[in-house]
Inverse folding.
């Protein structure tokens, strides 16, 4: 995932990756930083302006080599399949093109792994592919659409919260059933639990 054309050491891709590691570090206690997936670089940072640098809750290994990782190792580290990585790229869920070697082989850098993790987390919460694609498009466009990103994430959050409430209600029903069965089994009259019976002629 190349952020900028190759340049000097101060602005080259390798230096940019080193900066991302520092920017995505866990905040010190009392810093007031939230648990959001985005971190905003300082104005003087080497990070490319307008490019979002996610900080997922799970920490990725710090030993991603400068030359990047092959697709198999990238899949292993992010917990998704090689097919999924190719699919993410094919349907436009990446914010920049995946870096490639001279022979055309994909090379994934730490920033790529972090963005893949964000996409995977959003997918796990039920966000449809079109929603993640739209989010990636907004991020790739750069600064000026932060309100649109906020609206998209806030809308999805409301759907997630509603889904959690529904799951909790369903869980209460399951817990009730478990309590009933445990109580009847303990009393030795579990065979008295209601069960539907159909007559032989029932259809």
């Amino acid at each position: 995932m190349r952020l900028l054309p190759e340049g000097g050491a101060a602005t080259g891709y390798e230096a940019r990756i080193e900066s991302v590691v520092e920017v995505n570090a866990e905040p010190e206690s009392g810093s007031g930083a939230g648990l959001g997936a985005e971190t905003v670089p300082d104005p003087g940072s080497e990070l490319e302006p307008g490019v979002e640098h996610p900080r997922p809750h799970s920490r990725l290994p710090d030993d991603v080599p400068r030359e990047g990782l092959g697709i198999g190792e990238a899949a292993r580290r992010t917990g998704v399949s090689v097919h999924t990585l190719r699919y993410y790229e094919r349907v436009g869920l990446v914010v920049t093109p995946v870096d490639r070697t001279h022979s055309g082989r994909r090379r994934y850098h730490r920033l790529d792994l972090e963005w893949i993790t964000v996409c995977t987390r959003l997918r796990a919460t039920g966000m449809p592919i079109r929603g993640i694609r739209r989010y990636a498009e907004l991020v790739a466009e750069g600064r000026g659409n932060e309100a649109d990103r906020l609206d998209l994430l806030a809308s999805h959050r409301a759907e997630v919260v509603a889904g959690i409430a529904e799951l909790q209600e369903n869980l209460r029903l399951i817990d009730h059933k478990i309590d009933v069965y445990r109580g009847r089994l303990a009393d030795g009259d579990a065979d008295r639990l209601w069960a539907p019976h159909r007559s032989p002629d029932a259809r």
User: Anything to note?
Assistant: The mean pLDDT is 75.
